[in-house]
Amino acid sequence: MIRVMYRWTVKAGDEDEFIRNWDAGTRRIRTECAGSYGSMMLRSAKNREHFWGIGRWESRAAWNAAQPVIMAMKLKGPMPEEIRFFDELDELTLAQKPS
User: Fold this and answer.
1) Nearest partner of 22 among 64, 70, 61, 63, judged by Cα
2) What is the pLDDT tens value at each position of the chain, 99 positions in all?
3) Beta-carbon-side half-sphere exposure of residue 48 (alpha carbons within 13 Å)
4) Which residues contact 44 (CB under 8 A, 6 or more apart)?
5) How far apart are CA 68 and CA 59, in angstroms?
6) Are the CB atoms for 12 and 86 separated by under 8 Å?
7) Rg value, the chain, Cα
8) Where are the beta strands (DSSP E) in 35-74?
9) Options 2.30.30.240, 3.40.50.170, 3.40.50.720, 3.30.70.100; which CATH number does 2-87 get?
10) How remote is the C-alpha of 43 from its chain's centroid?
11) pTM
């Protein structure tokens, strides 16, 4: 399993549209691309115009194979300015907060 971090710079006032487009695109990628396990969106506490997506993929090969499919989707919104790859060593997050 790998994690892929994407960074975007979003202008003030464009945040809601960016997040809506990211959400729709991520749901579509998760549905249509083999090996995609979804993503999360984070906003920098230090630089408020920086947004980070952290995607989870089965492998780098699955991510590579999905790229032509994703490009053909013509998703709304900007392309990431930066992409970084990480090997996932452990996963302890919960889908929901425990009651």
Assistant:
1) 70
2) 999 999 999 999 999 999 999 999 999 999 999 999 999 999 999 999 999 999 999 999 999 999 999 999 999 999 999 999 999 999 888 777 666
3) 5
4) 50, 51, 52
5) 16
6) no
7) 14
8) 36-43, 50-57
9) 3.30.70.100
10) 12
11) 0.88
Residue carrying the six token digits 């630089």: 47
- 9: its two tokens: 């710079």
Q: Fill in the amino acid letter for 24.
A: A
- Residues 6 or more apart whose Cβ sits within 8 Å of residue 70: 29, 33
Domain assignments of the chain as residue spans, ordered by start = 2-87
